[in-house]
Amino acid sequence: MIKLGIIGLGNVSLGVHLPILKSRKDIEIVWICDNSKTAQRICHKINIPFYYELEEALSRSSPEIVLIATPYNTRFEIFNKLKNKVSGIYCEKPFALSTKEHLNYTNGYEKYAFTIGYQRRSLGNVQILRNIVSNKLFGQIRDIIIEFGDIHYSFGNFRSNKQIAGGGILFESGSHWIDTALFICDAFKIENFSSQVKYDYDLDIHGEGQFKIQNLNNEKINCNFKFSSIENTSNKIIFKFDSCWIELFLYKDKSNLIIKNEESKKFILSDYNMSNYPNDSISQGASYWRDFLESFRKKKQSYTTNDILLLTSKVIELYYDQ
Prior knowledge:
The protein is built from 10 helices and 14 strands. With 322 residues, it is α/β, with parallel strands linked by helices. Helix content is 34%, strand content 26%. The strands form 2 sheets. Strands 8-9-10-7-11-12-13-14 form an 8-stranded mixed β-sheet. Strands 3-2-1-4-5-6 form a 6-stranded parallel β-sheet. It has 2 domains: 2-92, NAD(P)-binding Rossmann-like Domain (Rossmann fold), CATH 3.40.50; 120-278, Dihydrodipicolinate Reductase, domain 2 (2-Layer Sandwich). Helix 1 packs across helix 9 (281-298) and helix 8 (169-184) packs across helix 10.
């Protein structure tokens, strides 16, 4: 039984993390820490110890793993209070604006014991596509085109405040898309990064650019991206090979991979038995937690804890430094 603490009981924790963790027989949630009375009432109903102050929670019970699901501006203080008190961390994204900040937070933790909430790595479509790329089923991947966002994208609640949220559309949502692309092609290094970014009230509302990915086979892949709340985009990632391309719809539940070629032929890649499972927010979250906990138990890195996490923070740093 792994003892786990939760810091932050907002929408993501309530809608995804808490149901998953409560359903697991190998997890004991020893406390939840939050600053709201609503969270306190919920914890009272489900019989989980609740604390307003992290210091008091840690003094009452020492978890092995802590889930951090609070806004970006709270992280520095939280990590300082957790230092040398827990063995593992699951931190929701957005995580860090620079590699220096990333390494500062991960310092002192084993690599197998620290993950960031890039749960879309566990999607069935993402895992299938990663296998296609690594096995060169359609040859070497040449180009990646990432597009996300539309005119209906909302910077609601705390996300409208730069001081709290840390950044705009790339930091909050685009980071998922960048991380997924890097993960699928087994990225090792980023080169020749350039971007053009538009801001409104210090939040990036539109950004586009390009960079080269070097993977572990020393192959170079061109990557172009666009993230926007002022333009409608295709909301997909295109992976181009010599004779075809594959379209991935990252935010569309129960979607299929689409294979196309220059002759306008279209093929749907689907597992009819499992529907490309995991294929929605709950199933991908459950799979990601399962595999992270397995990594923690076996003290061995997995796809949930690999070094591409740092590379994603590097892209974020380059984007905001332009």
